[in-house]
Design goal:
12 strands; Rossmann fold; 267 residues; 5-stranded mixed β-sheet; binds the ligand O=C(O)C1=N[C@H](C(=O)O)C[C@H](O)C1; Dihydrodipicolinate Reductase, domain 2; alpha/beta; diaminopimelate biosynthesis; NAD; binds 1,4-dihydronicotinamide adenine dinucleotide
């Protein structure tokens, strides 16, 4: 297998630091640069926690990074504000984005899809790289065909920036694709405290819980006469996402299309 040259944006983050381990421990992957808003001009090995990493230059500016470094793939694990800019810039430089960053808008996704088509390059946007989470979304989509009253509860650590989570949005989208839009609950329902019923998506409600101690969890509740069904997934560490990142990097090199969701590339 040919070596895949990879840039990681957000290497010091909770996810980014796991991705650095994945890339540097995978034989056919090579970490060629890092994009970090701090430490411009240093080597990754100069940064605490990365002393054992070989010669990997850090750039604060992705444009400059892509002008100087020959790369195949950009793995982006940053923030909703910069993730889109990074993905767009990578494609403009003929580098294939694998994006775990969440909080992208529908317009962002449409723009990236257009750019992929124009450039004939692959791009994978995966709101959740954990295989169990992908199964949870697929099982929820199956269940929604038969039980169309749904509430989504996502639970995350309290440092998360976006709400609802990318996974919750993707789950709601997947359910909406098979379910007639339906207003749930009593038609005269009133919130006496604003937000009590959570966010609304095609009549479904999404509730976001943020607590220290949590990592990434979601349950999808279905109800019908006299019964409920709960489908739940829990990530207990960020290693749980890494096999999905690996598959995404390998797949993005083979495909020249835009992919939104890991379920679309898993066999
Ligand atoms: N798709 C998936 O399976 C998963 C996605 N995520 C998403 O990944 C993203 C990162 O999550 P965490 O690692 O928990 O966050 P984090 O806050 O630990 O890491 C974000 C990193 O981005 C860096 N950063 C900020 N601005 C930057 C810039 N302009 N250039 C380069 N780096 C910059 C920060 O320094 C930080 O190290 C979030 O959007 C989160 O929702 C998180 C877990 C799993
Ligand atoms: O920020 C996180 O931690 C996570 N973000 C992703 C999301 O928004 O769905 C994936 C996972 O839930 C962890």
């Amino acid at each position: 297998m040919d070596t895949i040259k990879i840039i990681i944006a957000g290497p010091r983050g909770r996810m980014g630091s796991e991705a650095v381990k994945l890339v540097t421990n995978t034989e056919h992957f090579e970490l060629v640069a890092a994009v970090d808003h701090k430490h411009d001009g240093l080597m990754l090995s100069d940064v605490e926690g990365f002393q054992s990493i070989g010669n990997v230059p850090i750039y604060s500016n992705i444009e400059k990074c892509l002008q100087n470094i020959e790369a195949d793939v950009l793995i982006d694990l940053t923030t909703p504000e910069v993730g889109m800019y990074h993905a767009r810039t990578a494609l403009e430089h003929n580098v294939r984005p694998v994006v775990g960053t969440t909080g992208f808008t529908k317009q962002d996704l449409e723009e990236l899809e257009r750019l992929c088509f124009e450039k004939e390059l692959g791009c994978i946007i995966a709101p959740n790289f954990a295989i169990g989470a992908v199964l949870m979304m697929k099982f929820s989509q199956m269940a929604a065909k038969y039980m169309d009253d749904v509430e989504i509860i996502e639970l995350h650590h309290d440092q998360k920036l976006d709400a609802p989570s990318g996974t919750a949005v993707k789950t709601a989208e997947m359910i909406s694709a098979v379910r007639e839009a339906k207003q749930q609950g009593h038609p005269n329902e009133k919130e006496t405290i604003q937000g009590a019923r959570g966010a609304e998506f095609d009549g479904m409600h999404i509730h976001s819980v943020r607590l220290p101690g949590l990592i990434a969890h979601q349950q999808v509740l279905f109800g019908s006469d006299g019964q409920t069904l709960t489908i739940r997934h829990d990530s207990y560490n960020r290693g749980s996402f890494m096999s999905g990142v690996k598959v995404a990097v390998e797949t993005v090199m083979k495909n020249n299309t835009f992919v939104y969701g890991l379920e679309n590339i898993l066999g």
